């Protein structure tokens, strides 16, 4: 019968201790005391008849002391014992008989077997030992790059395994790849994932991070999980001794090698912070607080002319405070506050023209309150948290936005991007959460059980107030040199610069002309066969030749005009229940769990617009402790992860008040509105189809892990994933008409309708959409001991599919040639990187010098041949032929995922010197990033026609030049 002691939370770990005598017999009744100077939490208990005890609810730290004493035995103390959140490590101790000797404490080293033989979770703990020894960025997003399998990410949202790493819709820097929306981000169990984009939604003071646990697979029912990773940051706490630090880091362009690709940029940056922690009441009430300021100033120069463009300043103020109150032996209360207000005056990107620049304001306040009460074998934990995330932007140039496309010629970016950014937007993406967790520990003749059940309620809010600048519209025009082109030329030609119209807009435009008060004018202009109707061929003959009222001396084609302005707010509400049992019997551990999730979406009017069905996600994991001592294991896991729909789709279907925008095409001498976005005057923009399902990923995983001695471990895993029930928006006028859709036709019953609703689109499950992933990963970990540590990994990723949709509205339900079932759509997933190799480690010299190295290599980013339309990079079109009963132009068979950028590797180094004097420690840092100054291309142009700055296949982003980063810290 295993003795349990203490409480267990998601952000705490456990130790499984077995005590024997010199002959290997269990020692019952031995007193085990576990404590660390880094946490108020200390656990003490007595071993059972098998000499075993499990100590739960230990805060993560690498500085635990384990003291063991027993009647008639020499006491033992083990120092620098590691505890990792979410893991349960085994320790085996041997007590020697006192005999005639005097009782003395025998001090021994770390005795942890570095494999949790009861868990199927795949991931890595990024500890202070690691981050303070290696050259990394000073934020938790940079620490993610140390984890095996995470792909390079400039924006701090790395894809992992099957996590989507590509979007047709380009970001503010023109990128389609390098950012995943499949991750979950937690800071002290506060979910700070952005409820619109699925990316990280908060920054945090790097000085307060105690540990970061990066989970990438095999997650039990208590975790949301997903196709990507789960990042869990655990923050520092006070202690019984006052402690603190002050640091300063700096860098400027004089410490950076010449940029081989973008000359002239200069900058300076600094980062300074203090920390302070200690007791308010010893052993009862602790505090920890910190403040960090980060500031960077850039002078941005034109890469072609070397002319000065602008100065940009970014300032972040990162505050943190935590109170920990151990009210009684069984009651604990923790209150946490952190914030991250950030102001950015403009863009550092040289490709951002001054007229397209914008200032940004980001961040907000975060609060967390946690209470726990423990009984002999039961624990109750209650949590409440609030996250605020502002992400607002103000255009530098208030003139009317006008994107101008060119057919032929050699346009520059200045020719294409005319006018201002186009809008000013105030936006908040907030989240409130309440949770309750109940745990029960049960011993039987057939092993022990750790039963856990929990409920979480989450409310996401999105507030938006957006105002179009200039004349209140945003234009997509063509150059004066292309005056006279037809609609057919526009939708079928090769253009440099974005166009907004596609062939599947024809029916909507013709209907708008027919229903217009000016219908007679449009018939007279286009009805060349006098049939009384306008055909597709007649619409394709429409020419564009007027520049009347155009804001950029170009030819009118398309604009979206904001006709009503007002702020709006909408929300989603989610409930999640889970129950799981971790059953440990002899060498076997079985974790069986179920997770149930349901989400409701509410419009700007407060009305419920859709309630998704309860989705049940089974999770089953089995591990076998090969030697029975926690030193090695084999395991298998099956689980389903659901990917709830974010508030971007709530906005699509639920913006019934607020801003109203009209999409218009220039016909003859006037603008024609053919689609209205927002409001309800011309029908709702979108509905959630009644049959819409929540996207999910099924995971099958097998693995083997073993330890070498007390501080080294190796692991190999195989992962197989399939993602289905992907989500898209559909044009039902197209897809329910067999005369247009042929074999791609979907009956109204597929969407749960008996008639077509009054909306532009419906949000529904994408028929035939699927992604498949297989991967193999090898990991080696050497914990800090004997003057060195190391983390090394190799990952192989094979990703295929016919859709990159990730809970967002794109074009796959709008045009038949992008339908997942259409020819040319299945292929290697753009954004994938097949091979990743990482190694990081450090060595400590006896004179106080420490050398840390990080080397990362990858085989290159996969990308498609694309063309630009409506702010998206869509796969190139090929030949026109009949397929599935439809005569159409289809995606080129060699377009999707057909290219791979060049491979590259980078080496970074850190030299640290530590000096101790009279209770103080001074540290001096020198980080060298890109030691060999290999400014390799990391992303290549995927637009076949180029973008006016870079041609197809040319590198458009590079590894930053070699740069030195200086820092110092004094702590006590």
Short description:
This protein has 972 residues and is mainly beta. It is globular and about 115 Å long.
Description:
By secondary structure, this protein is mainly beta. Helix content is 6%, strand content 51%. It contains eleven helices and 61 strands. It has a 27-stranded antiparallel sheet that branches. It has a six-stranded mixed sheet with strand order 27-26-30-33-39-40. The longest helix is centred in the middle third of the chain and has 10 residues, at 506-515. The protein is globular. The model has no long low-confidence stretch (mean pLDDT 92).
What labels describe this entry?
51% strand; 972 residues; single chain; 61 strands
- Mean pLDDT, to the nearest integer, reads 92
Q: In percent, how much strand structure appears in the residues?
A: over 45%
* Major β-sheet profile: 27 strands, antiparallel
| SSE-based structural type | mainly beta
Overall strand count: 61
Oligomer: single chain
Through-space gap between termini? 44 Å
Helix content: under 10%
Contiguous low-pLDDT stretches (5 residues minimum) are none
Number of helices: 11
Supply Rg: 30 Å
Overall, the morphology is: globular
């Amino acid at each position: 019968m295993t003795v349990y002691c203490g409480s267990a939370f998601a952000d705490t770990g456990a130790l499984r201790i077995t005590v024997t005598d010199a002959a290997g017999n269990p020692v019952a009744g031995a007193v085990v005391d576990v404590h660390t100077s880094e946490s108020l939490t200390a656990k003490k208990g007595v071993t059972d008849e098998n000499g075993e005890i499990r100590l739960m609810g230990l805060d993560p730290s690498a500085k635990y002391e384990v003291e063991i004493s027993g009647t008639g035995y020499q006491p033992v103390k083990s120092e620098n014992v590691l505890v990792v959140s979410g893991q349960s490590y085994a320790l085996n101790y041997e007590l020697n008989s006192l005999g005639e000797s005097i009782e003395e404490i025998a001090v021994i080293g770390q005795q942890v077997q570095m494999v949790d033989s009861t868990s199927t979770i795949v991931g890595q703990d990024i500890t202070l030992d690691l981050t303070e020894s290696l050259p990394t960025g000073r934020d938790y997003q940079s620490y993610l790059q140390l984890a095996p399998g995470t792909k390079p990410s400039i924006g701090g949202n790395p894809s992992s395994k099957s996590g989507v790493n590509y979007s047709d819709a380009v970001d503010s820097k023109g990128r389609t790849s390098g950012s995943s929306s499949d991750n979950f981000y937690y800071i002290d169990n506060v979910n700070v994932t952005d409820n619109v984009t699925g990316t990280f939604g908060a920054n945090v003071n790097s000085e307060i991070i105690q540990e970061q646990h990066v989970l990438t697979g095999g997650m039990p029912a208590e975790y949301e999980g997903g196709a990507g990773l789960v990042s869990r940051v655990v923050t520092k706490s006070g202690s019984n001794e006052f402690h603190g630090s002050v640091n300063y880091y700096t860098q400027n362009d004089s410490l950076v090698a010449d940029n081989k690709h973008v000359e002239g940029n200069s900058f300076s940056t600094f980062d300074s912070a203090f920390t302070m922690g200690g007791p308010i009441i010893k052993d009862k009430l602790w505090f920890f607080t910190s403040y960090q300021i980060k500031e960077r100033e850039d002078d941005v120069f034109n890469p072609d002319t070397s002319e000065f463009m602008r100065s940009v300043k970014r300032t972040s103020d990162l505050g943190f405070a935590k109170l920990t109150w151990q009210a009684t032996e069984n009651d604990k209360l923790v209150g946490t506050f952190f914030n991250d207000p950030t102001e950015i005056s403009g863009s550092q990107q040289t490709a951002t023209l001054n007229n397209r620049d914008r200032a940004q304001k980001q961040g907000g306040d975060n609060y967390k309150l946690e209470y726990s009460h423990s009984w002999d074998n039961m624990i109750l934990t209650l949590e409440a948290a609030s996250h605020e995330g502002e992400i607002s932007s103000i255009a530098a140039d208030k003139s009317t936005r006008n994107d101008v496309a060119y057919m032929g010629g050699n346009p520059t970016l200045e020719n294409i991007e005319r006018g201002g950014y186009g809008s000013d937007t105030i936006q908040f993406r907030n989240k409130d959460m309440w949770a309750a967790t109940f745990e029960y520990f049960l011993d039987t003749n057939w092993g022990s059980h750790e039963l856990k059940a929990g409920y979480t309620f989450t409310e996401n809010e999105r507030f938006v107030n957006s105002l179009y600048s200039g004349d209140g519209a945003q234009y997509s025009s063509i150059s004066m040199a292309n005056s006279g082109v037809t609609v057919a030329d526009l939708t079928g030609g090769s253009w440099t610069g974005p166009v907004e119209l596609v062939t599947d807009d024809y029916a909507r435009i013709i209907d708008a002309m027919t229903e217009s008060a000016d219908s007679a004018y449009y018939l007279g202009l286009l009805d060349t066969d006098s049939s009384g109707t306008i055909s597709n061929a007649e619409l394709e003959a429409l020419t564009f030749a007027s520049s009347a009222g155009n804001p950029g001396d170009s030819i009118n084609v398309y604009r979206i005009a904001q006709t009503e302005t007002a702020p709006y707010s909408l929300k989603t509400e989610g409930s999640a229940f889970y129950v799981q049992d971790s059953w440990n019997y002899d060498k076997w551990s079985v974790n069986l769990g179920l997770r149930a999730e349901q989400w409701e979406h509410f419009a700007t009017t407060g009305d419920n617009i859709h309630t998704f069905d309860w989705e049940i996600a089974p999770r089953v994991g089995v591990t076998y402790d090969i030697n029975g001592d926690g030193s090695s294991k084999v395991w298998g896991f099956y689980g389903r992860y659901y990917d709830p729909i974010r508030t971007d789709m709530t906005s699509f279907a639920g913006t019934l008040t607020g801003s109203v925008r009209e999409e218009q095409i220039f016909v003859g001498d006037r603008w024609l509105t053919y689609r209205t976005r927002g409001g309800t005057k011309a029908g709702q923009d979108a509905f959630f189809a009644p049959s819409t399902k929540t996207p999910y990923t099924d995971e099958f995983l097998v693995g083997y892990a073993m330890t070498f001695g007390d501080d080294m471990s190796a692991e190999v895993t195989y992962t197989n994933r399939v993602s289905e029930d992907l989500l898209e928006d559909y044009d039902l006028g197209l897809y329910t008409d067999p005369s247009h859709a042929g074999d791609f036709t979907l009956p109204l019953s597929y969407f749960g309708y008996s008639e077509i609703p009054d909306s532009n689109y419906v949000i529904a499950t994408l028929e035939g959409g699927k992604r498949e992933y297989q991967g193999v990963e090898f990991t080696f970990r050497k914990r800090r001991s004997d003057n060195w540590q190391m983390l090394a990994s190799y990952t192989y990723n094979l990703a295929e599919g016919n859709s990159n949709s990730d809970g967002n509205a794109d074009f796959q339900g709008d045009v038949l040639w992008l339908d997942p079932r259409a020819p040319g759509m299945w292929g290697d997933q753009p954004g994938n990187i097949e091979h990743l190799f990482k190694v990081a480690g450090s060595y400590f010299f006896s004179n106080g010098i420490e050398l840390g190295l990080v080397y990362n290599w990858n085989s290159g980013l996969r990308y498609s041949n694309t063309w630009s339309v409506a702010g998206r990079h869509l796969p190139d079109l090929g030949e026109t032929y009949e397929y599935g009963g439809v005569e159409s132009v289809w995606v080129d068979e060699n377009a999707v995922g057909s290219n791979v950028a060049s491979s590259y590797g980078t080496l970074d180094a850190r030299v640290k010197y530590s000096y101790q004097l009279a209770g103080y420690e001074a540290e001096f840092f020198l980080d060298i990033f890109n030691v060999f100054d290999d400014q390799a291309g990391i992303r290549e142009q995927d637009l076949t026609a180029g973008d006016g700055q870079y041609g197809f296949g040319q590198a458009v982003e590079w590894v930053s030049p070699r740069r030195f980063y200086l820092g110092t810290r004094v702590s006590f």
